[in-house]
Amino acid sequence: MGLFGLFNKEKKETLDKGLTKTKESVFSKLSRAVMGKAKVDDEVLDNLEEVLVTSDVGVETTLRIIERIEERVARDKYMNTSELNGILKEEIAALLAENHADASADFDAPLPATPYVIMVVGVNGVGKTTTIGKLAYQFKKAGKKVYLGAADTFRAAAVEQLVIWGERVGVPVIKQQMGSDPASVAYDTVSSAKANGADMVIIDTAGRLHNKINLMNELTKIKNVMRKILPDAPHEVLLVLDGSTGQNAFEQAKQFTKATDVNALAITKLDGTAKGGVVIGISDQFKIPVKYIGLGERMEDLQVFDKKAFVDSLFS
Q1: Contact criterion met (CB below 8 Å) for 26 and 273
Q2: pLDDT at position 47, please?
Q3: How far is the C-alpha of 72 from the C-alpha of 48, rounded, in Å?
Q4: Beta 116-121 vs 236-242: how paired, if at all?
Q5: Helix axes 307-314, 20-34, angle to 10 degrees
Q6: Assign residue 93 a region: left if phi > 0, alpha if psi is -120 to 50, beta otherwise?
Q7: Residue 91 contacts by C-beta under 8 Å, 6 or more apart in sequence?
Q8: R_g of the chain computed on alpha carbons
Q9: pLDDT digits 0-9 by tens, 113-163
Q10: pTM of the entire predicted model
Q11: DSSP secondary structure of 107-141
Q12: Mean pLDDT over all residues of the chain?
């Protein structure tokens, strides 16, 4: 097996292990849903609906999946319950494909712009700063020169945490005094990154949601000052969500997509939860691609989201 094969094998093992709790939960519920039934009928579909909703797929997405399966049952006239796993897998794969038309590029893929600017948003406690550290590690490992900007200037802990990550990974962190203007930090970071030939800039922002108008204004201001240096910045607005919070993650996605132009998602902490179905629901409802998933504590446990590998793992 070549080096590339070894990397893929390790990624698959990390994914399989990270989704273990979700798989166990979904399949034990599915087994109960079809117990004693030979064919897929209304009762089985009702039970399946409950399985998906309680697996945090979300009501709207669940109804879409059930509708698709109902159409197949009506078309085929008779469907064995033994076929249900395969059909469910196909329908979930089809849903994810609609929101992930392009194959996810890996960390070593060429960047569409340099420096490529990612503005990271999300509430405190979802693993935002840790995700930034892991992204910096993965991109640096892939040979890219990375700069971090500590624009969450309202929490000393956030700045300190980012500095620690910067030291661990070996990438520069641009920061200012506590309480400084976040937009000023973002400006300094992009300016410094451009001057020093960096490939990537990752900006941490404050995770407050209690006043959406203030948050909206702050994020807009950060974007505007970065555009004075790079007219297309930020190239990516990455919303970090904690997968273990289930339905709460849906609510956060709703608030942040109203506050700013989110165009990518990272869903963290999937390894410690049975709520992995949230990846399917959030991707479907917000029509925003899930770009990264967090599957453990190690720096390598942040993966580029591969929809095919995810569905294969979920149903393996």
Answers
A1: no
A2: 87
A3: 15
A4: parallel
A5: 50
A6: alpha
A7: 65, 68, 69
A8: 21
A9: 999 999 999 998 898 999 999 999 999 999 999 999 999 988 888 899 999
A10: 0.91
A11: TTSPPSSSSEEEEEE--TTSSHHHHHHHHHHHHHH
A12: 88
Single-letter residue type at 259? A
Instruction: State the virtual CA torsion across 235, 311, 273, 58 in degrees, nearest 10.
Output: 80
The pLDDT assigned to 142 comes to: 94
CB atoms within 10 A of CB 145: 16
Kind of pairing, strands 264-268 and 236-242? parallel
Answer whether residue 204 shows pLDDT above 80: yes
d(CA 91, CA 84): 11
The beta strands (E) that lie in 151-252 are given as 173-174, 200-204, 236-242
219-249 residues labelled b (16+ CB within 10 A) or e (exposed): beebbebbeebbeebbbbbbbbbbbbbbebb
Residue that has been written with the tokens 């392009």 in this structure: 102
What the block records as the tokens of 223 is 């974007």
- Burial label for 82, CB within 10 Å (0-12, 13-18, 19+), is exposed
